[in-house]
Amino acid sequence: MAGLKTIIVLSFILAIGFLLVILSSALWHNYFPLLVVATYVIAPLPNWICSHAANPDDFMESAGSGVIDFGRFMTGFLVVMGVALPALLAHCHIIQVPAMVMSIIGGLLIYGTIVSFELFFQEEAEF
């Protein structure tokens, strides 16, 4: 059972992630690294939507597995894009390498916090 300490720790880690991404943009006066925030915030949505759209039947375990797999694929694509986008921008000299590193670390902290929040506060299904 997750409590108040879990919420406080997760919010602190989320704040550090956002701070790193914002600083990676503000310190070098280039706001392209802020695109990472959008990808990490949108990343859990396909998984959530597809898990609710699948509506598995009580009698069949494999019902809707294609929809769930598609949601996992899109979530994985968005997470990889959140890491690859700053690397691509740094490779094209649109942002600098320290901004890339700060953006990737901050983005991973943001996504890790979102996943941890979902794991800690997941409701049990009742039959």
Structural class: mainly alpha
Specify the biggest β-sheet: none
Helix and strand run: HHHHH
The poorly predicted ranges are none
Q: How far is it from the N-terminal to the C-terminal residue, by CA?
A: 20 Å
What's the total number of strands?
0
Q: Give the C-alpha Rg.
A: 17 Å
- Average pLDDT works out at 86
Give the total of domains: 1
Number of helices: 5
Fraction of residues in helices?
over 70%
Strand content: under 5%
Query: What is the overall silhouette?
Result: flat
What does this structure look like?
The chain has 127 residues and is mainly alpha-helical. The protein has one domain (25-55, 63-120). The chain is 73% helix and 0% strand. The chain contains 5 helices and no strands. The protein has helices at residues 4-26, 35-42, 44-54, 65-91, 97-120. α2 (35-42) packs parallel to α5. The longest helix has 27 residues, at 65-91. The radius of gyration is 17 Å and the shape is flat. It starts with a helix and ends in a 7-residue tail after the last helix. The mean pLDDT is 86.
